[in-house]
Design brief:
By secondary structure, this protein is of the alpha/beta class. It has a domain of 258 residues: Alpha/Beta hydrolase fold, catalytic domain (Rossmann fold), CATH 3.40.50.1820. Helices cover 31% and strands 16% of the residues. Strands 1, 2, 3, 4, 5, 6, 7, 8, 9, 10, 11, 12 and 13 form a 13-stranded mixed beta sheet that branches.
């Protein structure tokens, strides 16, 4: 069956896409005016309705960003780059009416990534009866710079969360336009992985995003501390002060000079000058630290599906501290740093198991990697499902522990983002250095199961898959779905893990001068 042109007249304007194999696909639709030149570091502005029919058959360029390091499994290859990058893509079943909508936020540490990555192609997921939307948002220094001059320009007196504002603008575009593509604006699920899942938490926390989505999916989220706009909190320099520092290191006298710089050169130079992108606790878009918002029950009251991968750090080894010379040195470092918590820590992440730690039939990873995995991703996933359950919202937890030959040979069992080809059905279009998923009946059944659960949650808020085990909500005995060689419903994931890391963060919050991020275990500060 061949393809043909298809036109949708949406409130934003008329767009021409491609219809083929029961799907209508539209790419590169602008959802906000380009934030270039004098508009750099300003909130996104709506695109006036355009005249005529806009071609929507090619992805828009990715936002300016540094390239991945050589040899990264996450590098999807060269892509067009432009500061005029605020575009989105739509995959819709042909003839869809009031279909559930899935809005996907790409990962990349808030530094990198693109909605045009073939890993996120929405075609197969849309074939499950869901309208899939993906979009680009400003990254790095272009998306998250705070600076006193920028705050002075803002009616709210704030700066820094431009990437988050882009995400809100994309959701507003969906609210206003998706019905024309067959989607139901009253049935929107927002989802993301890694920094995309961090963004999901920011959206859940932000009053400006209320009512724009009704469900959330957070894959490998990490609820780390964030800088405040003007105050030093939890060991984080004020975001405005950090902005002044990076401007000085770049030789810029102020915002006018920064706006005159080439966007791509700026995106590459800023990390070298020490800039770290993060959401900013500004009292408006992000009223408080994420942990505090969730503790107070002030987040969006939506059902959630959240989880993490058993081998997260196997592809993120740059996050790991240097390994001690011996098990005795490891134990000594833990006792020196964690004091009365050291026995609990060493029980979960034992010194004698630095080569292959963490108990469990298929759990892979040494104690240092397991501790970092749990402090970042495991603790966050359980905190999300615990918090939403406390609000009376259906909440579903998972652990992705699936291996296959190429990943095992590379020592990357269930690595960070390894679940994505199964969720999107894109196993045959992964990046060049990604451990190749085999084309077997078993892998296809596994893909169908994961896609079934995810699509069902988008449709009804209950993850179900034909012929697969029932996925019980977390509130039923701390239940979770273990995606190992096949899906299995289980309970009590890594007993003691959440309580330990929750106590570590509680103490750091009380101290007020210690961040919680990857400073875990032997990298913890001494008391």
């Amino acid at each position: 069956m061949g393809s043909r042109a298809t036109v949708v007249d949406a409130p934003a304007g008329s767009v021409r896409g491609i219809e083929a194999e029961g799907l209508r696909v539209f790419k590169g639709i602008p959802y906000a005016l380009p934030p270039v030149g004098p508009a750099r570091w300003r909130p996104p502005s709506p695109v006036p309705r355009w005249q005529g029919t806009r071609d929507a058959t090619a992805f828009g360029p990715r936002c300016p960003q540094p390239d991945y390091a050589a040899g990264s499994i996450y590098c999807a290859g060269p892509m067009p780059t432009s500061e005029d990058c605020l575009s989105l893509n739509v995959w819709a079943p042909a003839g869809a009416q009031d279909a559930p909508v899935y809005v996907w936020i790409h990962g990349g540490a808030l530094w990198r990534g693109s909605s045009r990555d073939p890993l996120y192609d929405g075609a197969r997921l849309a074939g499950s009866g869901v309208v899939v939307v993906s979009f680009n948002y400003r990254l790095g220094v272009l998306g998250y710079l705070a600076h006193p001059e920028l705050s002075a320009e803002s009616p709210d007196g704030i700066s820094g969360n431009y990437g988050l504002l882009d995400q809100i603008a994309a959701l507003e575009w969906v609210r206003d336009n998706i019905a024309a593509f067959g989607g139901d604006p009253a049935n929107v699920t927002v989802g993301g992985e890694s920094a995309g899942a961090l963004s999901v938490m920011y959206l859940m926390a932000s009053p400006r995003a209320r009512g724009l989505f009704g469900r959330a999916i957070a894959q490998s989220a990490y609820m780390i501390s964030s800088p405040a706009l003007r105050e030093a909190q939890h060991g984080e320099k004020p975001a405005e002060a950090a902005g002044l520092d990076v401007a000085a290191r770049l030789g810029a006298s102020g915002i006018a000079a920064l706006r005159a710089m080439d966007a791509q050169e700026l995106a590459v130079a800023a990390p070298r000058a020490g800039f770290q992108p993060s959401g900013v606790v500004d009292g408006v878009l992000l009223p408080r630290q994420l942990v505090e918002i969730f503790d107070r029950g002030e987040q969006a009251r939506v059902p959630i599906l959240a989880g993490f991968n058993s081998g997260e750090i196997r592809s993120l080894r740059f996050l790991m501290p240097e390994k001690p010379e011996s098990p005795a040195a490891y134990e000594s470092a833990i006792r020196d740093r964690l004091g009365d918590l050291s026995d609990d820590f060493l029980r979960l992440y034992p010194a004698g198991d630095m080569a292959e730690g963490m108990t469990g039939e298929t759990i892979m990873g040494n104690s240092i990697m397991a501790a970092l995995r749990d402090a970042l991703y495991g603790w966050t996933a359980q905190r999300l499902v615990t918090g939403q359950s406390a609000l009376g919202m259906p909440s579903y937890q998972y652990n992705f522990d699936h291996g296959y030959p190429a990943a095992e040979a590379a020592g990357m069992h269930a690595f960070h983002a390894a679940e994505l080809p199964y969720v999107f059905g894109t196993a045959q279009t992964t990046p060049a250095l990604w451990p190749k998923v085999p084309e077997t009946a078993e892998e296809e059944r596994f893909t169908a199961a994961m896609m079934g659960y995810w699509a069902s949650f988008m449709k009804s808020g209950i993850p179900q898959a034909p012929g697969q085990p029932a996925w019980r909500p977390y509130s039923e005995g701390r239940a979770y779905m273990n995606f190992a060689e096949r899906p299995r419903g289980e309970a009590e994931l890594f007993p003691g893990m959440f309580d330990l890391h929750e106590e570590v963060v509680r103490r750091r919050r009380a101290a007020g001068d210690i961040p919680w991020n990857w400073n875990v275990g032997i990298a913890s500060p001494r008391p």
